[in-house]
Task: inverse folding
């Protein structure tokens, strides 16, 4: 695992966007996985800008969404799918056969998990993942106590996740379950980038980097990834080494 510290979120996001560009130039049919939320938002915007400006071929690349709130429709602002559509699919003209995202409103969540795992396997595994870290150390909806051996699964949300998650929505939501890729996907992804910015992430970043690898703090799994990168700004790095 490599830790990189940047002056601010803009510099960090610019670096991430360049990494993504390099990935697609080297392998135009890469399978990319994104989290939604605040952490990867600017990187996605800069990537789209650069891809358009440099006329990068995005017709072959494949995309999977890391997770989704169960019960929340793709049309709801604040759903992960809505973010991906707004950030990436619409501006780059990504076609439905190029991506697979969880449908939070399906009546068959087990099937949704199977279909996601199949899509990833059929496309040769994930080449690059961009994830965030929650205030309880989660990645995706891999909550504290997670089993590191899982593929896609449905999970009851931790209280912190359900509370913090309200920030993404325009009205109060009932957030009880999430559907998410598992840590087997993360460990087998060729590269994983965990992005965090601002002082509110300083404590969880410290624990992810300096704490023990343990299922009680899911993001500690990054320490086990041979091609894992933690990209943080100075504010998020402020407690390291103390
Ligand atoms: C969202 C996701 C979550 C977030 C995490 C951090 O798709 O997978 O695990 O990455 O909760 O959220 P932000 O980046 O909004 O601080």
Result:
């Amino acid at each position: 695992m490599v830790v990189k510290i940047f002056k601010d979120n803009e510099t960090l996001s610019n670096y991430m966007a360049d990494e993504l560009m390099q990935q697609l130039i080297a392998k135009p049919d890469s399978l990319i996985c994104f989290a939604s939320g605040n952490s990867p938002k600017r990187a996605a915007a800069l990537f789209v800008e650069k891809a358009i400006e440099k006329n990068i071929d995005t017709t072959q690349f494949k995309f999977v969404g890391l997770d989704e709130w169960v019960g929340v429709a793709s049309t709801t602002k604040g759903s992960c799918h809505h973010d991906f559509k707004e950030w990436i699919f619409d501006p780059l003209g990504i076609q439905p056969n190029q991506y697979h995202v969880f449908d939070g409103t399906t009546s068959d969540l087990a099937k949704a998990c199977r279909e996601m795992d199949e899509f990833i396997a059929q496309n040769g595994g994930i080449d690059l993942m961009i994830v965030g870290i929650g205030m309880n150390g989660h990645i995706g909806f891999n909550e504290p106590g997670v089993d590191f051996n899982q593929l896609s699964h449905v999970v009851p949300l931790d209280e912190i996740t359900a509370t913090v998650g309200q920030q993404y929505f325009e009205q109060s939501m009932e957030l009880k379950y999430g559907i998410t890729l598992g840590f087997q996907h993360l460990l087998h992804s060729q590269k994983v980038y965990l992005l965090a910015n601002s002082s509110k992430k300083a404590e969880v970043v410290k624990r992810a980097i300096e704490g023990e690898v343990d299922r009680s703090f899911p993001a500690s799994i990054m320490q086990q990834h041979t091609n894992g990168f933690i990209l943080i700004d100075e504010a998020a790095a402020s407690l390291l080494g103390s």
User: Anything to note?
Assistant: The pocket of fructose -6-phosphate is lined by residues 35-39, 66-67, 80, 131-134, 138-140 (CB under 6 Å).
